[in-house]
Amino acid sequence: MQALSRAIHDAILAEYGVPERDYFHILTEHGAGRVIAQDAGLGFKRSSGVVMIQIVTQQGRPLEAKQSLFAAIAANFAGLGVAGDDVFIGYMENTAGDWSFGFGRAQYATGELAVPALAGA
């Protein structure tokens, strides 16, 4: 699972230009039969090795940047033996005021952290 996490982060670094230490992942593994991920009507069959990724990030990147990120993640996963039809990505956006990195403060809103420029925007 660490290799999958690193593959995702490497794609984000390459495509979005975020700092290396902007690395926050939750890794959860589920046993056989505990994940249901069909093809949404696209006509392919997933294996039992499906990997579901949920990305939460600040709003503002264009569709092309997102598509480039999705492709980079799939390519990195292919290098680890994960087939493209087993890579499922959900992408959720929010605003700078929706983040707290600790201490109960919204560091972007308070100015403790500079709101990063969005690479690819």
Automatic annotation (TrEMBL):
Concerning InterPro entries, the annotation shows: Tauto_MSAD, Tautomerase/MIF_sf
Q: What is this protein called?
A: Tautomerase family protein
Organism per entry: Arthrobacter livingstonensis
